[in-house]
Amino acid sequence: MKLPELSVKRPVATAMLFVAVLLFGLVSLHKLPIDIMPKMELPTITVITVYPGASSEEVEQQVSKPLEAILSGTENLKEIKSSSKENVSFISLQFNWGTDINEATNNARDLIELVKRHLPADAQSPVIFKINSSMMPVLIYGITAEENYTGIEKIIEDKIASPIRKVEGVGTVVYVGQPTREIKVNVNPNKLQAYNMSISQISTILQAENITIPGGNIKVGKNDFAVRVPGDFTNINDIRNIVLINFNGKVIKLKDVADVEDSFKEKDEFARTKNGLGVAFTVQKQSGANTLEVIKATRKKMAEIKKNLPKDIKISEIINTDEVITQSIGSLSSSIWWALLFVSIVVFAFLREWKSSLIIFLTIPFSLITAFIAMYLAGYTINIFSLMSLVIAIGMVVDNAIVVLENITQHIEKGSKPKMAAIFGTSEMGMAISASTLTTLMVFIPMIFMGGIVGIMFKQLAILTSVTMLASLFTALTLTPMVSSKLLKPKGKQKKKHGKLYEAAEKVFRAVETQYKKVLNWAILHKTITISTAVLVFAFSLYVGKHIGTDYIPDFDAGDLAVVFETPVGTSAKETDKVAQKIIKIINENVPEKVPGTLASVSGQTEDGSLTTVGFSEGKNVGSVLCHLTLPNKRKRTAKEIGEAVRKKVAKIPEIEKFHISAGSVLSDALLGNKKPIEVNISGNDFEKLNSVATQIKNKFEETQCLNNISTTID
Predict the structure, then answer these.
(1) DSSP 3-state assignment of 119?
(2) 404 touches 488 (CB < 8 A)
């Protein structure tokens, strides 16, 4: 092979090459964003259409059905679902894995254009949302106020939301639950009839009066002035004094036929924290942004904002995603360092020479640093799967170097000069270690072609492990022989004296070798027993493996507790909020492990589907209660145990029709698409029979003790 010869004869060039790799790797490591999971863009889009003032039936007939009919023709469509609620329509399109989501979005957008003219005139233009990992909020705050509650919307928009949007890496800021100012015109029908007027006339006049008109430009000498005719209402008296008509010589104003009231909209969404009714404030990051950096910068900006807010406004951090990222990445990083330490100790224990150990040790950082370069070039993030690949590879990257070094050492012991021994010793082993490495890669390469969400997660692990193994092969064929030719010295005629540690280790190794010879000799002489034992062990392994439980994504205790519940259809948002308060009380009394200030609830439905865009379920009869628990090592109960205790209490609330408790990590639910581990789909044309069968299946499941969170979607 030419590589060993080139590296040994050009040591400076070889050294500079690996120094360049090291520097490029360190720069890549510094620039890599950190996240809990790989970036995921699921093959799903959601079309949200707002139809103000419409009932759920009108939304279904006039918006959802026309859109669903046209969107069912989208290419590569796997499944389409629609949900119609008051004021808003949700249509979810799920595509086959491997579909280009950008192309699918453009296709859906083109189809929507064909049907837009058939939608109601008051319906807003449909908005398409692509589902990806960056849609999940990285921070959720609860904001409450006392004296300034009526003006909290303007305070949040001007003093909180606007500065947060300017933070680097912040994508979208969504807040719900705030009181929205509304000017109510309560018309007296008798007076209106007396003046021979109609509601539509008043509406037209109000629209015409509340407008600013551009007046063109006026040039005066060297100056050019833009002219505008202001006509917007500035206060409530402007509205009251609008002239409607001249009736029998008398000017009739709006205040003569109606009471004008400055109040607030009747809202259908409620947000609560420990301080009472307030606003839920969510922060999403930009796609590809470093989650930890975004959270850190947002918290810093929020701390600055708090100093300039009125004293009665309280801001509590409810949910964050940096804790689980820090804990998970920290744990894996610790595993890598421990693995590195133990690999070094094992290598030194067997080689028992610092020079040989150093040669082997050098292959580890140069092999691993190549993975960071690959991550940077491929646009990956530092996540649990990329770090897992390093943990897997760290014990294998030294194999090739050990084989090469051992062969070089043998050549030197036979009298060869270090340079020649390095070239010939490495060349002899080149094909062998290449074949060995490629054989190992055959285990990981098929994972690159896996489809679905599993493929997204394990693709990085397969690619990075493969890159690291190839880097270790290249290092063993270049760096190892070059360093060996410089550090290893030819053996002298006099036998080298070794220290006591070496002699003691040698005795242990010789004793082990002697015992191994005896065992090997016995195994060869007793072939039947040896083969039978191997077969029995293999069969027992298969039996045990068959009875080991399997799961899609392992549960991990991130300390998140979420209760999503539904009251009977037709329940008002206000009543749903009352049920949420009962659940808050249950958690307060039964979960001392919660982090103070993180208990909050969001109930009801937004006018524009804002809650859906940040991952919440919504509807006038739907509510969510959230809280965050202390770290697992600071509490006696696991999140699952706490969730089970809360479940028993919540099940006793009579107003709740069905509910679901997530205990552990809301991220797991996000990855699973909020799907249950077991789902039974029932199809047919008779809704009454469908509901009857669904109820029977549910009752049977409830009799099984190993199942919980059993619910149906019957109408």
Answers:
(1) coil
(2) no
280 closest CA partner among 563, 629, 687, 610:
610
Q: How far apart are CA 240 and CA 517, in angstroms?
A: 105
Phi, psi of 130 (to 5 degrees): -90, 135
Averaged pLDDT, groups of 10, the chain, 715 residues long: 83 90 90 79 86 86 91 88 86 86 90 89 87 78 87 90 91 86 88 86 87 82 83 86 85 88 84 85 85 90 91 87 76 77 77 77 85 89 83 81 86 83 87 90 85 77 90 90 83 59 79 90 91 93 81 69 88 90 91 87 83 79 88 85 90 88 66 62 80 85 76 69
Strand 170-176 to strand 560-566: parallel, antiparallel, or no bridges (unpaired)? unpaired
Please state, in angstroms and as integers, the Cα–Cα distance from residue 39 to each residue in 33, 349, 482, 603, following that order.
Answer: 11, 41, 40, 30
Beta-bridge partners for 214: 228
Supply 683's token pair. Answer: 């199809």
Q: What is the pTM of this model?
A: 0.73
Spatial contact of 129 and 89, defined as CB atoms under 8 Å apart:
no
How many beta carbons lie within 10 A of that of residue 24, not counting itself? Answer: 16
Q: Pick from 671, 676, 673: which is nearest to 661 by CA?
A: 676
Q: Quick one: tokens of 344?
A: 């070094």
Question: Which spans in 526-679 are helix H?
Answer: 527-546, 573-590, 610-613, 639-650, 666-671
d(CA 214, CA 229): 6
Identify the bridge partners of residue 659 per DSSP, sorted by sequence position: 565
Residue 70: φ, ψ to 5°: -75, -35
- Beta bridge mates, 600: 626
Nearest in space to 408 (alpha carbons), one of 351, 469, 454, 450: 351
The C-alpha atoms of residue 411 and residue 421 are separated, in whole angstroms, by: 5
Amino acid at 677: P
Phi, psi of 76 (to 5 degrees): 60, 25
Tokens, residue 590: 């039964």
CB of 381 closer than 8 Å to CB of 33:
yes
Of 115, 47, 45, nearest to 76 by C-alpha is 45
The CA–CA distances, whole Å, from 274 to 179, 278, 577, 585, 626 equal 18, 10, 14, 10, 12
DSSP 24-52: HHHHHHHH--B-SS---EEEEEEEEEE-T
Could you give the CA distance from residue 242 to residue 118 in angstroms, rounded to a whole number? 36
